[in-house]
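Long-time lurker. I teach an intro course on protein structure, and each term I like to show students one example going from raw sequence to a predicted 3D structure in token notation. This year I'd like something fresh instead of my usual example. Would anyone be willing to generate the tokens for the chain below so I can use it in lecture? Attribution to the forum is fine with me.
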Amino acid sequence: MFHEEKCDYCGICLAKCHYLAFDEEEGGEALRRLAAGEKSPWLYDCVTCIACNEYCPKGARPFDLILKRMEELGDFTDPALRAQMADRFKAEGEPRPMEPKERVMSLCVMEGSMPWAIQGSIFSALPLLKGRHYFCNVLFAHMGDESIMRDRLQALVDNLARSGAKEIVFVHEDCYALLMGIAPEYGIKLPFRPVSMPEYLAGYLNEHRDRVIKLNMKVAYQRPCASRYTPEKEHYVDEVFSLIGVERVPREYDRENALCCGVEVAGPNLKLFPRGKNFEPFRERNIADAKKQGAQAMVYLCPMCFRTLGKKAKEAGLANYMISDICRLALGEELPEDKPA
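-- Reply from a regular --
Happy to contribute to a lecture. Here you go:
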């Protein structure tokens, strides 16, 4: 939630935005008007990348205010489409019981998006939680709706807790971000410890150093928008790359200055984010930046980023890997044939 008591309306959050044309003075005034409840047409130009939360030097969470006002507008995305998606991902009843384990892995609903990326020895010992009962609903924040995500959060936590696990590894970055970066804002307590995919991979690689073959490769990392909620875990990404002999090239559009991948399609034919924003120049800039710095591959944590940027990266001569893919290569494993190039 927006912490107005921390905000001094310096305007830095909006001035640093890649997608909105504000300087600091204009950004401060725009946010002040937004906080006062005034209608702000510029909200329709927001791409919901969450970056302003990370840019804010005071920790005021300006994107949370933006999201609240989007929901009040009611038409940031088509209301009928939003209702359709809400029904599509609504979990009915209770999840299937499972034998309690110390650690399990939640796939959310990502299994169909990247089945190749959750195979191999890295994941063989982890019992799986998957399906709508474990869907994080962060999708709806990108559709300008906070309520669906907030109102379903406690049920999600309860479903995850029914696994009996003390630690839950999250394949989907949105899930981890929700539990570590959003749930505390709503006062929701977690009876388990969430583990991000980079933390899990770093731990696995450290435990199996004797199997690691250094790849001696340069890569560009595509940082997911959801990582804006938990930037404190970024060191695990760097640790993973260090352990497998991969250089994360120091490029313009990485870390705090990362660009959104510009996802617009959530299924084969579903235009999920019809915002009218032309993302193509940003995608081209992103890939060109990777090439300029000598990257041989793009590495992704989010499957939507892989899907959105993969073709353009391939056309530019870059290989495409989920972060788990490149770890498997370093462990001497072959990637499955159904993995997209």
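Some talking points for your students: The radius of gyration is 20 Å. The first helix runs from residue 12 to 15.
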